[in-house]
C-alpha cells in the first residue's frame, strides 16, 4: 500500500496537500461551559461532605428495612456495595465513622455485626421532629410555589422530587395538603391546586435584598429595581465588555415571579433577554424556598411545565455564575444559590438546616474523639458482668428464676 494513500497519512496525499483546511469555531454548549467554569472550592468541599452524609443516611435506610433485629451482619451488608456504589468494602467504610456505626461481634453467633449509634439515631429522630414542628413554614413554601405556577397547580410528582429540599414530611400529601384544605385542593390523585391567593406571600426574596440595597447603601431605584445580587468566585476572568453587558442586564425589566403572567414577545427588543431574566428570577425564588438553598439540577426539570420554563435549565444556570453555582462533586449536578452561603455555611440558618448540620458534623468527626466511645464500651462490658441487684427490702431481682430452674432440674432427675 502506498504511504501517501494510507488512511493514517491521507492528509499527505497529492489531492489534499495544497488544499487549505478551514478552521472550525469551537462549539459552546452547556457541557463545555460546565467543564470550563471557574470552580468554587467552598461549594465543592461542602458537596463532598454532603456526599458522605447522604451515603450514611442511605445505609441507615437499608438497615431500617431489616425488621428482625436492630443490627445487621456485615456479611449481608457487603451485598449492598453495588447499591451504595462504594469503591471500598462496606466494612472499611463503616470503620471510618465510629460515631455513626458501632461494629461489634455477636455474643452468640460470633459474627461481625453493625448497628447505628444512639447519638446518630437521636439526630435522625430530631430531624423528623423539627420537620413536623415547621409545618407552617412548609405550608408557606408550597403556597408560594403554587403562586409562581402558570395555572396555580403543581404535580405531586414534582413536589415528591424535592420533598426533602422543601422540608416536607414523607406523608405530606395527607399531613400538609390534606390537613390544610383551606389552602390546597387536591384535583384527582396527582395534582394540587391553590385555593386562595395570599398577597402577603407575593413578595420574592430578591425584593427584600433590593429594599436593603436601596435604603442602606443609598443606591438609586433605577439601579436596584430589577437587579440581582452578584458574586463571582476567586479567579473568575472578566472579559472585555463584560461589565457593561452585566450592568445593562441588571437594569433590564422583566415580569416578576408573582406578577401577572404576560405573553413575552420574543421578536421585540429585548424579548428573549426579558424572558430568560424572568426564568432566572423563578429559579432564584425556588432555590430561596428550599431549606438548604440547593437542589439537584435534574429535579428542576420536573417544574418546567408548571412554572413555564421553556429553556435549557442547565445552560441558563451556567450563563449566570454570579447567581448560581453548579457542583459536580456529588452523584448528580447540584445547584447552589451563591448569595445564601459564605465559605460553605448558610448565612441565615433555619431549624431543619441546623438539625441536618448536626448530623453532618457527627459524620465529619470520623475517627477523632473516640476516647469517649471506648469508655462507653467498657462501661457496657462492666454492666454485663452484674448478675442481679438488691432492692430496699433485701430481695434480689431475678430470685424468681432460681426456684423455676430448680423445679426443672427436679423434674428431669429420675
TrEMBL record:
Residues of the PORR domain: 38-367
InterPro entries for this protein: PORR_domain, PORR_fam
Superkingdom classification of source: Eukaryota
GO molecular function annotations of the record: RNA binding
PANTHER family per UniProt: PROTEIN WHAT'S THIS FACTOR 1 HOMOLOG, CHLOROPLASTIC (PTHR31476), UBIQUITIN CARBOXYL-TERMINAL HYDROLASE FAMILY PROTEIN (PTHR31476:SF12)
Protein name, UniProt field: PORR domain-containing protein
Amino acid at each position: 500500500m502506498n504511504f501517501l494513500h494510507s488512511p493514517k497519512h491521507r492528509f499527505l496525499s497529492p489531492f489534499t496537500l495544497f488544499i487549505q483546511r478551514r478552521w472550525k469555531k469551537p462549539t459552546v454548549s452547556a457541557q463545555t461551559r460546565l467543564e470550563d467554569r471557574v470552580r468554587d472550592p467552598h461549594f465543592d468541599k461542602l458537596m463532598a461532605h454532603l456526599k458522605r452524609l447522604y451515603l450514611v443516611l442511605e445505609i441507615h435506610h437499608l438497615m431500617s428495612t431489616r425488621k428482625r433485629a436492630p443490627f445487621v451482619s456485615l456479611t449481608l451488608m457487603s451485598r449492598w456495595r453495588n447499591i451504595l456504589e462504594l469503591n471500598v468494602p462496606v466494612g472499611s467504610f463503616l470503620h471510618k465513622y465510629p460515631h455513626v456505626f458501632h461494629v461489634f461481634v455477636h455474643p452468640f453467633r460470633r459474627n461481625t455485626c453493625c448497628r447505628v449509634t444512639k447519638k446518630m439515631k437521636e439526630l435522625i429522630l430530631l430531624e423528623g421532629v423539627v420537620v413536623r414542628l415547621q409545618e407552617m413554614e412548609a405550608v408557606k413554601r408550597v403556597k408560594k410555589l403554587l403562586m409562581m405556577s402558570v395555572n396555580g397547580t403543581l404535580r405531586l410528582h414534582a413536589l415528591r422530587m424535592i420533598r426533602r429540599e422543601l422540608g416536607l414530611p414523607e406523608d405530606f400529601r395527607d399531613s400538609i395538603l390534606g390537613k390544610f384544605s383551606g389552602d390546597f385542593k387536591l384535583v384527582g390523585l396527582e395534582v394540587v391546586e391553590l385555593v386562595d391567593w395570599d398577597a402577603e406571600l407575593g413578595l420574592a426574596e430578591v425584593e427584600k435584598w433590593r429594599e436593603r440595597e436601596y435604603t442602606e447603601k443609598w443606591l438609586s431605584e433605577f439601579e436596584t429595581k430589577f437587579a440581582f445580587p452578584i458574586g463571582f468566585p476567586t479567579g473568575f476572568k472578566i472579559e472585555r465588555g463584560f461589565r457593561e453587558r452585566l450592568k445593562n442586564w441588571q437594569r433590564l425589566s422583566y415580569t416578576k415571579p408573582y406578577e401577572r403572567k404576560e405573553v413575552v414577545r420574543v421578536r421585540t427588543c429585548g424579548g428573549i433577554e426579558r424572558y430568560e431574566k424572568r426564568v432566572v428570577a423563578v429559579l432564584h425564588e425556588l432555590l430561596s424556598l428550599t431549606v438548604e438553598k440547593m437542589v439537584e439540577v435534574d429535579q428542576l426539570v420536573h417544574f418546567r411545565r408548571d412554572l413555564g420554563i421553556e429553556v435549557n435549565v442547565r445552560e441558563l444556570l451556567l450563563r449566570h455564575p454570579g447567581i448560581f453555582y453548579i457542583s459536580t462533586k456529588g452523584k448528580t449536578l447540584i445547584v447552589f444559590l451563591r448569595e445564601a452561603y459564605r465559605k460553605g455555611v448558610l448565612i441565615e440558618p433555619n431549624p431543619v438546616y441546623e438539625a441536618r448540620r448536626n448530623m453532618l458534623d457527627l459524620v465529619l468527626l470520623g475517627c477523632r474523639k473516640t476516647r469517649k466511645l471506648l469508655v462507653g464500651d467498657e462501661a457496657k462490658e462492666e454492666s454485663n458482668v452484674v448478675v442481679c441487684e438488691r432492692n430496699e427490702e433485701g430481695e434480689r431481682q431475678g430470685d424468681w428464676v432460681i426456684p423455676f430452674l430448680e423445679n426443672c432440674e427436679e423434674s428431669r432427675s429420675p
